[in-house]
Specification:
mainly alpha
Length: about 70
């Protein structure tokens, strides 16, 4: 089933996107900072969410991992 139709899979994909963008911005900040519009702007926004809300994003990742593994 596609991640679009399954809510748990959609949340997993969004969390992975946020975490990946925040990690890549840490490695290559100049690439992420100069592209703030278009599709790269979406990645920049995900990176900002990952940086500013990192305790919440981390807690959501732990909860999602628990639900995937044990429920």
């Amino acid at each position: 089933m596609s991640a679009i139709f399954d809510f748990q899979s959609l949340l997993t994909v969004v969390l992975l996107l946020i975490c990946t963008c925040a990690y890549l911005r840490g490695l290559f900040p100049s690439i992420m900072d100069r592209n703030k519009v278009g599709i790269m702007g979406t990645f920049w926004k995900c990176a900002r969410i990952g940086e500013r809300k990192s305790p919440w994003v981390g807690a959501c990742c732990v909860l999602m991992a628990f639900s995937i593994l044990f429920l």
